[in-house]
């Protein structure tokens, strides 16, 4: 039965966020280390671990929000340490869905989400973007949908709706598992708005004069370390993105309004033509 918790003791522990990467853990004391920083896709802190409580993170990292499209809100922290992803709230007639988590939500941001109708469904593309999902789950008790392939990273959360490769948690909002960057990496496709929230499947460099206009696009297994995807991973990406009719591609960091399915497929085709790489490719150089 949805919402059934045979053992909820772990979710009553306090939360701590890593100052190096932003990954949250629930622990009975300050954690001894951060498993996300020890993962091969990231790097360990050069001066040792530093963990913040929710209140400390709120005090250090101001939270901001903006409605980028009608019914689509972005929440982010600035200034911030660590990875610093954005969180998105998508409003629908059937309820609101949250995708990704910013490093920490202020009390004012949580109140804004409540004014917008709360949170009925929650998900994320992969553990780098979990951010403060713990706050959203504690405050709004949404259905949490995560791919089973990344379940090992969700110890701080209560997954109520695991899925394999596809899930439509609300009408018109589709979760598609791409794998690649993480085994459970997934994207959110908003059919009505034709927006693909692509997680870390792609990275963009934006025009300094227009933060929604992408100049370059790249794909990678590990962005910080510059590791490219394998041919099979690229083929799986292509199989997923070819099925989605999107005109905008939003990452946890930048909403690229000028990049859609044609540009994404052109990049993947170019990477499949020879040796894969993680270098940025100017959009104007893509063969569309």
UniProtKB/TrEMBL annotation:
Pfam families referenced in this protein's UniProt entry, alphabetically: Lactamase_B
Domain Metallo-beta-lactamase span(s) in chain numbering: 143-205
UniProt feature coiled coil, ranges: none
Name of the protein in its database record: Metallo-beta-lactamase domain-containing protein
Species: Methylobacterium brachythecii
């Amino acid at each position: 039965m949805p919402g059934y918790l045979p053992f909820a003791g772990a979710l009553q522990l306090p939360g701590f966020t890593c100052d190096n990467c932003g990954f949250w853990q629930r622990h009975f004391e300050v954690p001894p280390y951060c498993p996300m920083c020890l993962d091969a896709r990231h790097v360990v802190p050069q001066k040792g671990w530093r963990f913040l409580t929710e209140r400390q993170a709120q005090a250090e990292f101001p939270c901001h929000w903006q409605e980028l499209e009608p019914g689509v809100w972005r929440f982010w922290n600035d200034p911030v340490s660590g990875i610093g992803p954005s969180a998105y709230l998508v409003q629908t007639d059937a309820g609101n869905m949250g995708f990704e988590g910013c490093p920490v939500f202020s009390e004012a941001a949580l109140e804004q989400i409540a004014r917008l109708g709360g949170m009925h469904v929650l998900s994320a593309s992969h553990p780098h973007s979990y951010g403060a999902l713990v706050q959203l789950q504690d405050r709004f008790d949404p259905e949490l949908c995560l791919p089973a392939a990344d379940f090992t990273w969700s110890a701080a959360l209560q997954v109520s709706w695991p899925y394999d490769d596809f899930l439509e948690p609300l009408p018109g909002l589709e979760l598609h598992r791409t794998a690649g960057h993480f085994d459970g990496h997934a994207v959110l496709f908003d059919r009505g708005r034709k927006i693909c929230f692509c997680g870390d499947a792609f990275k963009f460099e934006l025009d300094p004069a227009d933060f929604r206009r992408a100049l370059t696009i790249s794909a990678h297994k590990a962005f910080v370390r510059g590791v490219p995807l394998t041919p099979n991973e690229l083929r799986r990406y292509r199989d997923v993105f070819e099925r989605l009719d999107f005109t905008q591609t939003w990452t946890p960091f930048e909403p690229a309004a000028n990049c859609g399915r044609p540009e994404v497929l052109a990049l993947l085709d170019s990477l499949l033509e020879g040796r894969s790489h993680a270098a940025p490719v100017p959009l104007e150089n893509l063969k569309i």
